[in-house]
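step=encode ok
step=design start
structure_in=
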């Protein structure tokens, strides 16, 4: 039960209404820190403004190739991913191109395995539940671990044709989403046993603090995308090759 005479309010403001004066010095120091935190957050709100998660423009189908410079192509061929990020209108856009030492079909089988993203991305994707299928369209509910930015629930409508080596996504407009995102995957052959993967996305979140954490989310998405696809596709190809080898 609350002590008599104490007003219960957030951030330990109750000390201001404490008639006893017990531990006044320690409490005043704690309260000063809390006030500093509050005023800092208010300053961030004023500085950043309110970000509106207006609808993002979906990518064309099939997605166009990203034009790389000669130097960027050489970098990808050496096995080093190429990244690009940009900010604007309260959102972030990014793409990555990277080499995978596995054929296109093996790599695409990993990317399109939407129901297993929680296994491929342990700790990053907390839920990946397929709740509807309509031909080449797959609807998936995700929960993203944004680390210090918190957790985000969103439902995605994927268009993943069975052929072509590409797939796009938009938000399911009939669901409530904590963020807005559009994007695509595309795999193109480099050799008979390797391929280049393109991942591109645009992201917005309807929250005042997005201007602070959008760089974290965009960077996290780029780096994670290259690692999990490469690791799991190459692992799957190695296992398939071992199984096919004569005993």
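sequence_out=
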């Amino acid at each position: 039960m609350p002590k008599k005479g104490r007003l219960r309010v957030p951030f330990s403001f109750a000390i201001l209404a404490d008639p006893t004066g017990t531990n006044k010095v320690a409490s005043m120091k704690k309260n000063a820190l809390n006030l500093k935190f509050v005023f800092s957050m208010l300053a961030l709100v004023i500085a950043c403004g309110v970000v509106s998660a207006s609808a993002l423009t979906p990518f064309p189908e099939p997605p166009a190739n990203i034009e790389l410079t000669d130097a960027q192509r050489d970098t990808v061929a050496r096995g080093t991913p190429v990244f690009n990020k940009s900010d604007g209108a309260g959102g972030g856009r990014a793409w990555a191109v990277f080499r995978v030492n596995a054929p296109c079909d093996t790599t695409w089988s990993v990317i399109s395995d939407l129901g297993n993203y929680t296994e491929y991305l342990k700790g990053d994707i907390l839920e990946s539940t397929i709740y509807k299928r309509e031909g080449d369209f797959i609807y998936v509910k995700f929960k993203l671990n944004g680390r210090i930015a918190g957790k985000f629930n969103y439902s995605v409508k994927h268009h993943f044709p069975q052929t072509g080596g590409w797939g796009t996504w938009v938000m399911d407009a009939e669901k409530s989403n904590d963020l807005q995102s559009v994007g695509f995957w595309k795999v193109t052959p480099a050799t008979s046993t390797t391929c280049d993967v393109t991942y591109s996305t645009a992201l917005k979140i309807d929250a005042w603090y997005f201007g602070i954490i959008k760089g974290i989310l965009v960077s996290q998405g780029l780096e994670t995308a290259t690692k999990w696809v490469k690791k799991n596709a190459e692992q799957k190809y190695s296992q398939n090759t071992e199984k096919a080898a004569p005993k």
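step=design ok
step=annotate ok -> Helices lie at 24-48, 70-77, 104-111, 117-120, 210-244.
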